[in-house]
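#dry-run=false #mode=assembly
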Amino acid sequence: MNRPLFFFIFLLLLPGLLLPTVFATGFTAEQIMERVDQTLSAAQDQEMRVKLVITDAKGNISQREMVMMQKGNDRRMVKFLAPPEQRGIAFLSLPGGLNYLYLPAYRQTRRIASHVRNQKFAGTDFTYEDMEARKYSVDWEAKLLGEEDGLYCLELIPKAKTNTDYGRLVVEVKADIFFPVKIEFFDKGNKPHKVMVQDKLEQINGYWVAREAEMKDLQAGTSSQMFFTEVKFDSGLADEIFTERYLAR
Amino acid sequence: MKRLTVTLLLLLLLAALATSASAMEWQGNFISDYHFQFNEKQEFSSGSRLTLQPAARLGPARFTGELCLDLQGRPVVASPSGLSAYQQIFPWELEVREAYVEIYDFPLNRMDFRAGRQLIPWGAGDLVSPTDNINPQDLVDFKDFGRRLGSDALQFIWYPGSLTVTAVFIPVFTPARLPAGWMELFLPPELAGLSEEAIQVSLPATTLSDSAFGLKLAGRLGGFDLSLSYLDGRYDLPVLETVQGELVDPMNPASRKWKEASLIFPRRRVLGVEFSGEAGGVGVWAEAAVFFPDKVSTRTKLELPPPLPPYIDETVVLSDAYTKYLVGADYNFPDGTYFNLQFLHGFPHERAGKKIEGSSFFALEDYLLFALEKPLLNGRVTIVPLAGLFAVQDFKAISQNYAVVLAPEVRWSPVDGAEFTLGVNWMEAAGDSLFSSFRDQDELYLKIKYSF
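#status=ok
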């Protein structure tokens, strides 16, 4: 390639190299993730009952039931209803990475240190980190990989200040409603770790929600399916619910 | 008979609650326990515990209870008539561990009120907490350390802003529950031989001045959860107040014969501080409790042969303030392995003060408690290869006074709700610590638990 032609091609590519990737829709990766955050936290609050079906590597199945409440996108409370040995266990996620766990057997609420965040949440394939209420656009650096079949494909790399056990995420976002339908989790060695698929999307009171979600642990060969029922939006959940006081109730 | 009547009344009450309150919910568990002592004794023991936890919610109020029915596996028949007594062939015990009502936002907004028998655990420690002094200890099974009895209390928990203020009032004192043969463990050997009638146990009066109260202030500071507490109550374990006897031969101290003794439960105030949080990704916690005991003297009176006057001695056994403390850390490794390490100065049953000869009761010892757990097969199996404690009374002479307790176990949950635990309690000890008393009780145990 002669030098003037190379320089011409370089000038053509320069905006793409210097600016965030912009596809035909005109959204940058950051804007897409901001829209995703808006979609996921569009409601003032949300409350739902969750049935969990956990399948181990040998195909054995166990079930859990819980109630999940969220206010904004930084406060979340999860309380187990079943099985009996886990009933009453409650988990509270607050802004600033503050997490608390109430264990009925000890009648005590315990602060959870960050080392617990990569542990399985009550035997499921979801970790405590997965259960936290977080903003993707705040904690992750997004890069748009492509757009195909109405889906944005993005790569998320944790920002320097982000406390996470994942090395990167690859997220597929439904382009028309900015809803994440698939997330691939890679560990810090860049090996595929888990895949979450959200399915049966439905609009309730104008808010999009997945009725089913499945998390597969590719390394352990296990999976956890979530079925969401009794979904309520904007029911006026009080701030007080997202406090240690309510964990034991 | 009286106990049976109380039990029936209780069950009727619960049945009535169950039928009247449609919101009544029950949960609980059943544990069947088998132990085999593999030392010289080669003894089996077994028992079962049924725990029922009723709960009912009506508007802003909730009832919570916990009933424990202990079925002791060993008959206690000691006489011919006992062979026809069901209670002696299948001894059992019912404990109302908790039964309280909780009313939210009462009497003030953002204040919760609890009344009834309740467990009020304070402290940041794992299983043992120097600041956890409200509920009396349940020492019937000493290996189940950390277990407490419920207290009949009034509790107010107020949440002004980001603080939590807890006030507890316990009108009537409740002592700790001690294991059978406790006198041999906790009293000087010479007194342990006294008959039941010869030892008088004086419970505190039930007046206002003999009641207990506590106050705790908790909040968050600089990324750490902090709390300060104050408790004005009594020791739940007895202290020897008087002991009387005679010295048959004034020239021979061994001719001493004790006739009677009295025990009291002295008052003590406890100032506590605790924090929990994380440092460098490791969970950390610490707490300290300063005990301010009332001055207590043990009065010894020995009658001497006439015409000698009686020998009287008063030894102060409790007076100076002392501190118990705990520092702990835990960490979860990415593969799920969990490690927990705590350094403890002063076990819950220990207190400082003058040590009565032959008794291990007053010495504050140092303990290192540890646990390593590894979940396998998606959490269906948990192996605990390392768990136990290391105790030392005097670091200058460790070989003469130490205790090592190791309790490795394997837990297996074949189906939801059911859990099998197979483990070993192994102990090696020297000296006269309380743990040394159990050194010949190494055992293998199997525990089957079903939750419903």
